[in-house]
Amino acid sequence: MSVNLVDEYRSRGFHVKCCIVPEIELATMRFVREHTRIPVPEPCCSFQWDNKDYIAMSHVPGTDLHELKWKTLSSEVQRTIMDQLKTYFDDLRSIPRPVGEHSISSVIGGPFLDARLLDWDDLSGPFENEAEFNTFYRAGQPLDEKVPEEIRRVHSVSHRLVLTHNDVCPRNIMVEGSTVTGIIDWECAAWLPEYWEYVKITNWKNWEDKAFKMRASEFLQPYPEEALADSIAEGIPYIPFVPRK
């Protein structure tokens, strides 16, 4: 009888995660650990078990923000967490993008996961530039008068391309006390237009913790025009978020 590798790695103290493209997440975690101060699990290896792909990584102490329930935390703890997140995401967004054939890609230069672009387990890209990315997002629709003005305006300008976590949510932020102990789940990370992280948070339809979502502009630069255009493209109401004083 073969050894259950999932149980084997867990018995050795590793956190084990089932994933779609293990090489992307492993490479991204290594890259982010090398270039930032962000607390990221230390990747160990990838393996297959029962026809599924897994990665093993170091255990991150603490509890995710979704389980902690953001609204139950004191305002002082919330502020401390936001300050740390701002430091970490400023770090992430300041990493120089390596020169390569494709501008918008995963850390290893190929396609990446993004449920906003395709089904959850389908890969998108890579894209040579932002214009190609925008055309793909519009499902090939030319940038003409049939496209709403708000979208035309945003898709007519170039944005800085930054390393983007691409799945920022309370479930992926680990906290112990008032300390952020880990930012996890880097499977969707990619080099993307600078506004993408912000609009993914503010316009994501299935958020369970809206109280945290409303604070996105405290740790990410807000992009109200891009968020409005994205909400129109996604067919959801746009709610402007005002930073706290």
From TrEMBL:
This is Kinase-like protein. Residues 25-215 form the Aminoglycoside phosphotransferase domain. Keywords: Kinase, Transferase. The lineage of its organism: Eukaryota, Fungi, Dikarya, Basidiomycota, Agaricomycotina. GO terms for molecular function: kinase activity. It comes from Dendrothele bispora (strain CBS 962.96). The keyword Protein transport does not apply. InterPro entries: AGP_Transferase, Aminoglycoside_PTrfase, Kinase-like_dom_sf. PANTHER family: AMINOGLYCOSIDE PHOSPHOTRANSFERASE DOMAIN-CONTAINING PROTEIN (PTHR21310:SF15), AMINOGLYCOSIDE PHOSPHOTRANSFERASE-RELATED-RELATED (PTHR21310).
